[in-house]
Amino acid sequence: MRDELQQIRQVLEEQIGRPSRWSGILEITSDPAVRGAKPFRCDIVLNESLAGQDVRWRTLIHEMLHTFSAGYNRTDFDQFPGWEEGVVEQCQRLLRPSLLAALGVRVDEAVFQEVEATHLYNKYIDALEQIRAHLSMEAEAFYLGLLAVPIRLRKGFAYGMGAALSGEERRRYWDTCSQGSAVLKEKL
Amino acid sequence: MMTREELINYVLDAELEEFDTVRQVVREWGEAHPSDEEPENLQYYLACSEEPIRRSRAELRAIQDKIQNCGPACLTREEVARFGLASRGIEGVAQAREVLFAWERAHPDVPRMYEVFEQLYMMEDAARGMAEEEDAARSEASPQPLAA
To answer: Which of A90, A91, A80 is nearest to A151 (CA)?
Structure first.
């Protein structure tokens, strides 16, 4: 899986136009509760059971995308998890088809859709999609734009995009942003 | 005085308990910049933000009460996931894992909620790192004993 991560990194660097911060270290875990993670030391953690499974590609791409995320640090992740996980997961879904095609990997989309239909980060993606709906913005531009902005500043970046709207539409947009923000940073 | 960008981020970062202070800061900023319409926009944003935050807190409290009164098994999948995703800190993460495992034992046919465990893994990593940074800052700030 390390070689696969390396290949994904190369394609993503071309697609995104920025370098990854991955340390190059892959840690294999047998923790049955974790398929993949991207700790703040910039290694990638993957579960040993993923090897050889078609569905692994979505996890590998997701974790690698964290290494392209601006301002990926402990404090900001702790405060705004949805602004990171939602953005990264949606980037994974958007970029995966062209990325796998570039790698010459063929996997039936149904394999991924089965996982993604009930994925628990969908609530983050729904909140982000409601914000995007006001902006008539193409999905890739919206999500890759957010990925390039430090996590802490993403909600300000989204707020600022409302300036292009006029009058009542702008107010409706900020109403949606404020509701989305409650979901994207929800904390006990 | 804050720049316009700083003011926007200050407002967007504010917690509900700080809203009264934040409103006052925005008012004062507006008085100093009378031709700028941003303060009016930000006051509107704050007004919109209150209700979703209060609702979210009330719903999370209801989930906590449910856990306390009838145990994790009583929660729906959405509720247990929401509890896990909203948990923070080393103790909070440990408690959330216990709740998730208890829920899984009661609902063995439901697929594991990996996304929640993975976010908890990251929250734990974040909390441990922040605690280490605080310890390091404290020991740097405290006077070192003189060598004999």
So the answer is: A80
- Cα nearest neighbour of B78 on chain A: A120
- A34 interaction partners in chain B (CB closer than 8 Å): 114, 117-118, 121
Question: Do B113 and A120 lie within an 8 Å CB cutoff?
Answer: yes
Confidence label for A136 from pLDDT (cuts 50, 70 and 90): confident
- ipTM topping 0.90: no
Check CB contact under 8 Å for A178 and B52: yes
d(CA B82, CA A6): 34
Asked if A187's CB is within 8 angstroms of B126's CB, the reply is: no
Average pLDDT rounded to a whole number, residues A160-181: 91
Q: Are B12 and B44 in contact (CB under 8 A)?
A: no
pTM for this model (two decimals): 0.91
Report the distance separating Cα B112 and Cα A186, nearest Å.
Answer: 22
pLDDT value of residue A128: 97
**List of chain B residues whose C-beta atoms are within 8 Å of the C-beta of residue A35:** 114, 118
